[in-house]
Amino acid sequence: MRVGEVAVIGRPNAGKSTLVNRLVGEKIAIVSDKPQTTRKRALGVARGPGYEIALVDTPGIHRPQFRMNAAMVRDATGALRDADLVLWIVDASERVGSGEGFLERLVSDSGRPAILALNKIDRVAKPKLLPLIERFAASPSVREIVPISARTGDGVDRLAALLAANLPEGEPAYPEDFLTSTPETEWIGEVIREKLLDRTREELPFASAVLIDSVREDAEKGLAVVTASIVVEKEGQKGIVVGRGGTMIREIGRAAREELEAQTGRRFFLDLTVKVQERWRDDERFLSRIF
Ligand SMILES: Nc1nc2c(ncn2[C@@H]2O[C@H](COP(=O)(O)OP(=O)(O)OP(=O)(O)O)[C@@H](O)[C@H]2O)c(=O)[nH]1
Ligand SMILES: [Mg+2]
Fold it and tell me: What is the mean pLDDT of residues 105-109?
C-alpha cells in the first residue's frame, strides 16, 4: 500500500476543493465561483487500488487584508509542514502572476516534493498548456506536471496514481469508513455558507460567516433542528441576505436543507438568523469561534 498525507495548495479559486471532492468521491469541501471559499483546512481520505491518500484541502494563498485572511494563510502554510507530498494546483485558464511565484517559494521552503496539477484544461486550448508546462518544469520542487480538469475528471485518475506512487509504503492510517475530519456541526455551517456564496457577490461573500448556535435532535418529529446565524459586517448586507420579505434567507435555508438531507438521508429544520457584527474579520474573539 502507498499511504500518506498530501497538502493541496494553490491560489484562491484554483479548484482545490473541487479536486479533493472528486478524488475522495464525496463532497467534503464546499465550492464556489468566488475566491477565498475555503477558510480552513479539511482532511478527506481518497482510496483506490493500492493506496490511501489523506488529502488536506487548504484555503487559497493570498495577500491577507484582515486578521481572518492571515489566519487562513497560516492554516494553509501549516498544512505543508505535516505533509509527505504537496499537490500544487494552478488554474491554467488564468494568467500566471506573482501569486504563483510566492507559492513556488513556499513549496521550495517546505522542502517537500510537489506534484503540480494544471487545472481547468476544459477551458484552455491545448497549445496554451505548453508554455505553462515549461514554466513550471523549471521549478526544482516540482516532480511531475499533470494537466487535469477537476470539473470533468479528465486526467484525475492519472493524477491519483502519480500521487500514490510518490508516497511511502505503509499500512492504512484511517478506519475503512472514515471520510473526513470535519465535524458534522461545522459541515452544516459550511453548506449554509456555500448556498450564501451562490447567491451573493462583490463584498458580501467575503464579509459573511456562519455560526452554528445549536443542533438538537427532535426524536418525535425525526428532525435535526439547527439554529444558526449568518454574520455580516453592515446593515445593508443584512438587508441583502434577508431579501425582500425574507425571500433570500428562505432560499438559502431551503437549498442548504435539501443538500444536507440528500447527503445524510436524515431530515433537517434550519432556523437561520442574520446578524451584523462590524469588522468581525479583524476581531480575534470572533475569529476564535471559526478557527
Ligand atoms: N471549468 C472548470 N472550472 C473548475 C474546475 N475546477 C474547479 N472549477 C471551478 O472553479 C471555481 C473554484 O473552485 P473551488 O474548488 O472552490 O476552488 P478552490 O481552489 O478550492 O478555491 P478557494 O477555496 O477559494 O481557495 C468553482 O466555480 C469551480 O466550479 C475545472 O476543472 N474546470
Ligand atoms: Mg476551496
Answer: 97
Find the radius of gyration of the CA atoms of the chain: 20
Residue percentage of the chain with pLDDT more than 90: 99
User: How many of the other CB atoms lie within 10 Å of CB of 102?
Assistant: 14
Per-residue CA distances from 200 to 23, 53, 122, 197 (Å): 28, 34, 26, 5
Q: Which residues form ligand 1's pocket by a CB distance below 6 Å?
A: 10, 12-18, 31-33, 35-38, 59-60, 119-120, 122-123, 149-151
Residues measured by CB to lie within 5 Å of ligand 2, the ion: 16-17, 37-38
Q: Which helix (H) or strand (E) holds 260?
A: helix 247-264
Q: What is the pLDDT of residues 234-266, one digit of tens each?
A: 999 999 999 999 999 999 999 999 999 999 999
For the residues 61-74, what does the mean pLDDT come to?
98
Indicate if the pLDDT at residue 15 is higher than 90. yes
Report the amino acid identity of residue 202. Answer: E
Q: pLDDT tens digits for 215-232?
A: 999 999 999 999 999 999
State the cell numbers at 48: 483506490
Distance 10 CA to ligand 2 centre (A): 9
Q: Which helix (H) or strand (E) holds 113?
A: none
Q: Is the CB of residue 28 less than 8 Å from the CB of residue 44?
A: yes
Q: How far is the CA of 25 from the centre of ligand 1 (A)?
A: 16
**171 Cα–ligand 1 center, Å:** 32
When the pLDDT of each residue in the chain is averaged and rounded to a whole number, the result is: 97
Ligand 1, atom 1, residue with closest C-alpha:
120
CA of 219 to the centre of ligand 2 (A): 35
Length of the chain: 291
Q: Which residue has the cell 489523506?
A: 54
CA angle at 36 for the pair 118 and 3, rounded to the nearest 5°? 55
